[in-house]
């Protein structure tokens, strides 16, 4: 109650301000044609960013915010949104605290309290699902790198420019053929919702990909010793190990494989496996391990440029989600440019019509972004990565490979 | 097949050594001070962080930092007994349970605040080494941890049976009133017992560090097994706790191998239930010493 009373005057003031300026801009544009206007400060375009900077995702949430800020700076330095008189992007951040309930209220608050053109968020699929529901109801577009396929069901304002969860499993299975012509895969997964759903995806698609699963073993997350579990993997005769695990268990698994001297390729999947923190914990043992990602910093020259800048600022390479976020910000800029408006509905329509194959907006595996009716990038696919020399190199599929497979 | 079984037994035995250090600490406090220390796992966690920071900032090997983590935790233990536990003795079970349980939550959350939830891993030269023979492997870090755990348990036994303080401790454990009549100061004895118990937790933490990542909740993984071992090995009986810990490590490992990786604990708890049904006082019988 208090909130809305406090905000109404500023809101209407802004709107009036905005109308006057847009009208002025329109007159000026007709008078001077397409010549950019100087000495006339365009109203900034508000973009909402929802990230968990506290709670269990805090560390990665912070890194997302860093990437989001870098992206906005890049757009603004390149002259902002030209069709809106060089308007600068203004990132309005909100902490969703790694909590679904907080995500709901924060998304609501962000949308109702600010005049937003569009929003992006929230790293974790569970949080993004909630934010996307709220955004759908408020009719504000949300663009996200979260991978759950549920984000593409019955939604009209949700856009997912990168590979979906179901595609990750397929890519993982195909990658096992890099290790052996006859891959014998052991799948070990923690017996949680995350572990069970991911591993079931692998199991269902394995026969279609011609991959034999020789061990399919759930385990209790948070074990004291990975020895007994890997003793089972050894006995199964597998030549490839898929571990669907969080960081702690994964560290123990990787170390124990080394101790046993087990000749087995390891694919650690996505998420916590493809961030710099993984290498910090596992060290040289990570060399040669495979994973999958929806973005990698070597996909094209632009990505490498952004990565170099990020590395200079934060001392580590630009991770999957952060890099995707930079591309997403440029997709939004592209949409704003074409919408020539900050009206969320027009921005949404312009996003739906997005079709890019060059520039920062197109830095994704495959190098093309165009949304289908379900908000999915029709060209979207994951990239197979491998830890090589303390860095992540893209090695799969052939078209996206930027380094040869390192044999371990 | 035989190779797989032998390997499973080796794996179980080695991790059982760590369980033993934690459970001996729990059973020692219980036997002497008659209090259940729910915070034992958090003291293991503190031991891990001590070794982690000493290794990271001063380059001290975690096995050497045993010489620092054990005394530090001994002093913490004496303070804990003197300032906190002493005040709830004789007040019944509830205040004692609340005290150590609250301490557990407090320490875990303080660690979360100070060290964040991030995992911290140490890489020592022997972290990833293993001895290989006859198709079997024995990880060096775990073997060293196991041997040192057994040595520490042996020293504790000598201490309890051959020194005046150790004998006083056993006397106070059996009948505090009579011990007092014999000129034993129970407060002092209790302080030493809690100190020794926490020092063992600290030792477990330091020994874990070369192969297990430290985190604020790391102690929780080991404390559950320790409690089962304490019950299985007869409450307050040190030899019983040691044997039970090793048995549980092996049972868990074999359970994972032949029942399923998410049901290793089923075997452990089945073993506990059977033992309680047929030997209600635990494997060591009715004696608490």
What does this structure look like?
The complex is a heterodimer of chains A (about 400) and B (about 290). Chain A starts with a helix and ends in a 12-residue tail after the last strand. Chain A folds into two domains: about 200 residues, Rossmann fold (3-Layer(aba) Sandwich); about 140 residues, Response regulator (Rossmann fold). Chain A is about 45% helix and about 15% strand. Chain A contains twelve helices and 14 strands. Chain A is elongated, with a radius of gyration of 23 Å. Chain A is an alpha/beta fold and about 400 residues long. In chain A, strands 2-1-3-4-5 form a five-stranded parallel β-sheet, with helices on both faces. With about 290 residues, chain B is an all-alpha fold. Chain B has one domain. Chain B has eleven helices and two strands, in the order ααααββααααααα. Chain B has a two-stranded antiparallel sheet with strand order 1-2. The model of chain B has no long low-confidence stretch (mean pLDDT about 90). Classes of the chains: A alpha/beta (about 400), B mainly alpha (about 290). At the A-B interface, strand 7, helix 7, helix 8 and helix 9 of A face helix 1, helix 9 and helix 10 of B.
Number of self-contained structural domains of chain B: 1
What is the residue-mean pLDDT of chain A, rounded to a whole number? 88
The CATH C-level name of the largest domain in chain A is: Alpha Beta
Strand order of the largest sheet of chain B: 1-2
Which residues of chain B form runs of ≥5 with pLDDT under 50?
none
Compute the number of structural domains of chain A.
2
The helix tally of chain A amounts to 12
Along the chain, the helix and strand elements of chain B come as: HHHHEEHHHHHHH
What is the structural class of chain B?
Answer: mainly alpha
Biggest interchain interface, per-side counts: A-B, 35 and 40 residues
**Average pLDDT of chain B, to the nearest integer?**
91
Q: Tell me the major beta sheet of chain A.
A: 5 strands, parallel
């Amino acid at each position: 109650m208090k909130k809305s009373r406090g905000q109404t005057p500023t809101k209407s003031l802004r709107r009036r301000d905005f109308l006057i300026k847009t009208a002025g801009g329109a007159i000026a544009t007709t008078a001077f044609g397409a010549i950019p206007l100087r000495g006339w400060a365009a109203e900034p375009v508000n973009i909402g960013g929802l990230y968990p900077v506290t709670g269990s995702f805090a560390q990665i949430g912070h890194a997302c915010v860093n990437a989001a800020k870098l992206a906005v700076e890049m757009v603004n330095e390149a002259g902002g949104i030209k069709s809106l008189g060089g308007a600068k992007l203004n990132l309005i951040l909100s902490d969703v605290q790694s909590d679904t309930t907080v995500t709901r209220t924060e998304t609501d608050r962000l949308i109702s309290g600010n005049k937003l053109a569009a929003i992006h968020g929230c790293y974790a699929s569970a949080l993004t699902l909630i934010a996307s529901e709220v955004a759908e109801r408020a009719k504000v577009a949300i663009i996200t790198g979260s991978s759950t396929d549920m984000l593409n069901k019955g939604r009209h304002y949700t856009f997912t420019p990168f590979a979906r969860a179901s595609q990750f499993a397929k890519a993982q299975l195909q990658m096992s053929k890099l290790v052996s012509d006859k891959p014998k895969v052991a799948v070990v997964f923690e017996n949680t919702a995350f572990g069970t759903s991911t591993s079931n995806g692998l199991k269902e698609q394995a026969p279609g990909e011609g991959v034999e699963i020789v061990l399919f073993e759930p385990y209790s997350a948070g074990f004291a010793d990975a020895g007994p579990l890997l003793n089972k993997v050894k006995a199964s005769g597998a030549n490839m190990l898929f571990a669907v695990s969080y960081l702690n268990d994964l560290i123990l698994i990787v170390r124990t494989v080394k101790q046993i001297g087990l000749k087995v390729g390891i694919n650690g999947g996505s998420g916590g496996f493809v961030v710099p923190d993984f290498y910090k914990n596992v060290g040289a043992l990570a060399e040669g391990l495979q994973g999958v990602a929806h973005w990698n910093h070597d996909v094209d020259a632009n990505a490498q440029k952004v990565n170099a800048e990020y590395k200079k600022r934060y001392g580590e390479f630009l991770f999957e989600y952060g890099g995707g976020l930079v591309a997403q910000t440029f997709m939004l800029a592209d949409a704003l440019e074409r919408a020539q408006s900050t009206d969320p509905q027009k921005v949404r329509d312009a996003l739906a019509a997005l079709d890019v194959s060059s520039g920062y907006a197109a830095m994704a595996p495959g190098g093309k972004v165009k949304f289908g009716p379900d908000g999915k990038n029709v060209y979207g696919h994951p990239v197979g990565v491998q830890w090589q020399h303390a860095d992540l190199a893209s090695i799969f599929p052939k078209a996206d490979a930027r380094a040869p497979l390192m044999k371990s | 097949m035989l190779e797989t079984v032998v390997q499973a037994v080796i794996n179980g035995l080695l991790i059982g050594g760590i369980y033993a250090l934690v459970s001996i600490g729990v059973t020692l406090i219980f036997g002497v001070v008659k209090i259940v220390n729910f915070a034992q796992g958090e003291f293991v966690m503190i031991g891990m962080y001590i070794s982690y920071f000493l290794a990271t900032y001063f380059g001290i090997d975690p096995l050497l930092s045993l010489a620092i983590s054990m005394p530090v935790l001994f002093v913490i233990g004496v303070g804990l007994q003197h300032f906190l536990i002493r005040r709830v003795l004789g007040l019944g079970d509830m205040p004692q349970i609340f005290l150590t349980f609250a301490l557990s939550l407090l320490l875990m959350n303080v660690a979360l605040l100070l060290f964040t939830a991030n995992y911290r891993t140490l890489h020592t030269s022997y972290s990833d080494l293993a001895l290989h023979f006859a198709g079997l492997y024995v990880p060096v870090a775990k073997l060293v941890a196991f041997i040192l755990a057994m040595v520490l348990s042996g020293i504790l036994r000598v201490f309890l049976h051959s020194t005046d303080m150790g004998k006083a401790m056993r006397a106070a454990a059996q009948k505090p009133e009579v011990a007092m009549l014999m000129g034993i100061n129970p407060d002092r004895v209790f302080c030493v017992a809690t100190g020794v118990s926490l020092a063992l937790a600290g030792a477990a933490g330091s020994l874990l560090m070369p192969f297990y990542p430290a985190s604020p909740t790391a102690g929780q993984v080991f404390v559950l097994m320790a409690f089962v071992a304490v019950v299985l090995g007869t409450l307050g009986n040190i030899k019983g706790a040691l044997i039970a810990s090793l048995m549980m490590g092996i049972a868990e490992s074999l359970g994972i191998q032949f029942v399923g990786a998410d049901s290793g604990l089923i075997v452990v708890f089945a073993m506990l239930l059977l033992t309680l049904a047929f030997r209600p006082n635990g494997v060591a019988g009715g004696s608490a010493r």
